[in-house]
Amino acid sequence: MEQRPEYEVVLAPREGVNDDKMRLLDWLVAEGALVNVKTALAVMETTKSTFELEANVVGHVFRLVEAGAEVSVGAPVAMIAQRPQRPTFTPSATSHVARAYDGPFQDQVITGKAEALIKKYGLPLAQFVGLPVVRAEDVERMQQQAPSAEPLASKLTGQPLDENVDSDALAETDLRRQLGDLLGGLRRRMRAKHNRHVSTGNLLYDRWELAKDYGFGEGTSVYDDCLILGNVAVGAHCWVGPGTVLDGSGVLTIGDYVDIGAGTHIYSHNTIERALTGHKAPMFKAATQIGNCCFVAPQVIIAPGAVIRDHTFVAANSYVEGEFPPFSLLAGSPARQTGTVELRGDRAILHLYQRPSSQKRANE
Q: Which domain holds residue 87?
């Protein structure tokens, strides 16, 4: 059995795809305090939201970063030691770290040796679900049980492909050259006018015209690589970014002056129970509503039946389910109201709720 090291290192997790740095706002536990798994250690802030950094192991906490400091994603923030005496921190000693993993692995601790073997063998983390601690012997056992990979047949439309056949001639046609010239000209035009590169569909299909074709409001634009399903109503002066999903299978209504960030998915149906029952249960549908003057940041998932009222800000990477009042600041997975929006003249001010001092110092 692998012996636990003198201390575990808690790293700054990645909370958003665009944030490589974050700030440690406040420590919630005293130096040397004894904590359990899931104890909130500190309040961290990214450009989009705040969150609590939690302990993944039991032990005594010793700080490596002071409150107010900026830290990089993946940088050491604290040590969790077995004894109440502060150990000597060795930056190069990364054989054991207490990481905050995403998805179903949030409570899972993976030893450094196990992590190195997982990368070496190219094993997916899903193979270790259910193990609270993944050790080197677990990885070795999983590797021995894995079936030997067989080479995949090289086929397309059921027909074998021969790499020795010269198929380049198929692309050397007048039509192919004309299409290349057209796309090249459109890309140069896009770069010259807007200093950006977009996908081919967005070059060929004006996003304001696309919004008109779907009956959306005046001044609204929708990127061509937005997936639009079912009964979707979008108001005026809205911006729907690339890589988004507007699912109106159970009816989706979006008000005026709403921005939907890139990669955000808004659903009004799901097939969870249908899939789990082998298609015996029906598809679940519930109307989803977003009010006026809302900002939904990138990479947000909004569940069927969610109701987001006017003047609401939804932070990046949030999962929103339920009904929320107007002027809300929503963040987290699952999202909760973490603040309010104030309109002050022609400006909008975001106010984060303050943690009660008694709660902040409960472990000190």
A: 7-143
